[in-house]
From TrEMBL:
GO terms for cellular component: cytoplasm. The lineage of its organism: Eukaryota, Fungi, Dikarya, Ascomycota, Pezizomycotina. The keyword S-adenosyl-L-methionine applies. It catalyses: N-terminal L-prolyl-L-prolyl-L-lysyl-[protein] + 2 S-adenosyl-L-methionine = N-terminal N,N-dimethyl-L-prolyl-L-prolyl-L-lysyl-[protein] + 2 S-adenosyl-L-homocysteine + 2 H(+); N-terminal L-alanyl-L-prolyl-L-lysyl-[protein] + 3 S-adenosyl-L-methionine = N-terminal N,N,N-trimethyl-L-alanyl-L-prolyl-L-lysyl-[protein] + 3 S-adenosyl-L-homocysteine + 3 H(+); N-terminal L-seryl-L-prolyl-L-lysyl-[protein] + 3 S-adenosyl-L-methionine = N-terminal N,N,N-trimethyl-L-seryl-L-prolyl-L-lysyl-[protein] + 3 S-adenosyl-L-homocysteine + 3 H(+). GO terms for molecular function: N-terminal protein N-methyltransferase activity. Transmembrane segments: none annotated. Belongs to the methyltransferase superfamily. NTM1 family. This is Alpha N-terminal protein methyltransferase 1. Keywords: Methyltransferase, S-adenosyl-L-methionine, Transferase. It comes from the Eukaryota.
Length: 346
């Protein structure tokens, strides 16, 4: 990819917008030293050289993802790589995460780790995914607009990047769950007139309203039963241990409106570890899980994967990002027996 995301730009002194000094420091120290891929958020990889699959290639980073993969696969025949800890999620410390996030600027740059440029493409990808998902289930002709959803939740919402630029456009009411109060204060302050403290009954200008704002970690939040058409989780479930994530997803399952037009969405970075291990990041105390691990945990939570896709168009040095749409296993309707919706591939 070219432009401000290109590898060359990343290693030179090209402007990174309002990137916070800690981020810039991390960025510099990552180039050209070999590291794992970066996350589009402050949860930059802090893998040690031993953990980094690229390290012993002797290559610098910033290679396109597929090349890194091929090179590291070739290495599999060479000396064995040191194994990652078998349970990286055991290292998660919620207090440390909150301390970290409280130190981050309450803006899109803070949320996206110095990559605010990725926000627009991320939101476009999410919007396209949701439209496809809904169109497949909807009897509304393609030429007609889809009606707004009644109620959505933005989980681990940060400063409300997704709420403001996406969910308020597709739902009458958006509840916000986010443990860091300074982020939700910023979110509420930035709402336009008529967008605050609503029940969604009186949407203005085609936009919904923010309903409840809940300052809790997802491990402590229980969605109201049968309330949500959409529970959106992005770049935050890495703060939950595997057990907490399964418990949380089970509660989300109960939080969905009954029927087959309500979804839990998880959009997260994917581990690039060649042994498919999850990767612990001690900077914000989170894990980056593998696709296999996510699918296993969804199953354990009694959820069925009904659609999934890779986010396209991100800078190559970032972790790949995957989006999953989930529904309860036991809806038992014929349409859901299909593994994936047409047009959305795994
Ligand atoms: C990378 S930001 C993503 C924010 C937002 N989802 C977005 O994409 O713009 C990660 C967010 O997760 C939040 N977070 C940290 N620990 C959490 C937890 N236990 N449960 C839910 N969110 C958490 C952080 O405070 C931060 O707002």
């Amino acid at each position: 990819m070219h432009g401000p995301y290109s590898c060359r730009d990343a290693s030179s002194s090209v402007s990174w917008g309002a990137a916070t000094p800690p981020f810039r420091r991390r960025l510099r120290s990552s180039f050209p030293s070999p590291t794992a891929k970066k996350k589009p958020m402050p949860r930059q990889s802090t893998l040690t050289q031993q953990q980094s699959p690229q390290h012993s290639t002797g290559r610098v980073d910033l290679l396109p993802h597929k090349r890194i993969y091929r090179i590291t696969m070739d290495m599999a025949a060479g000396p064995p790589l040191p194994a990652s800890p078998s349970q990286p999620d055991a290292l998660i410390d919620h207090a440390a995460s909150i301390t970290y996030w409280n130190s981050v600027s309450a803006d899109t740059t803070g949320m996206l780790g110095g990559y605010p440029q990725t926000s627009r493409i991320d939101l476009q990808g999410s919007s396209n995914f949701l439209i496809k998902l809904r169109r497949t289930k909807s009897s509304i002709p393609a030429r007609d607009a889809l009606p707004p959803l009644n109620r959505a939740a933005d989980c681990g919402a940060g400063v409300g990047r997704i709420t403001k630029e996406f969910l308020l456009k597709v739902a009458k009411r958006v509840d916000v769950v986010e443990p860091v109060k300074k982020f939700t204060d910023e979110l509420v302050q930035g709402l336009k007139s008529g967008e605050w403290a609503g029940d969604g009954a009186d949407p203005r200008g085609g936009r919904g309203q923010v309903g409840e704002v809940v300052n809790l970690g997802l491990q402590d939040w229980t969605p109201e039963v049968g309330a949500y058409d959409l529970i959106w989780n992005q770049w935050c479930v890495g703060h939950l241990t595997d057990v907490q994530l399964v418990d949380y997803l089970e509660r989300c399952k109960n939080g969905l409106v009954e029927g087959n037009e309500s979804w839990i969405v998880v959009k997260e970075n994917m581990s690039t570890d060649i042994h498919q291990q999850d990767i612990y990041d001690d900077e914000d105390s989170s894990v980056t899980r593998s696709d296999d691990k996510f699918r296993k945990l969804f199953k354990e939570a009694g959820l069925k994967l009904v659609a999934t896709d890779l986010q396209r168009g991100f800078p190559k040095e970032l972790f790949p990002v995957r989006i999953y749409a989930l529904q309860p296993q036991q809806i038992g309707r014929k349409a859901l027996d299909r593994p994936l919706y047409p047009g959305i591939h795994s």
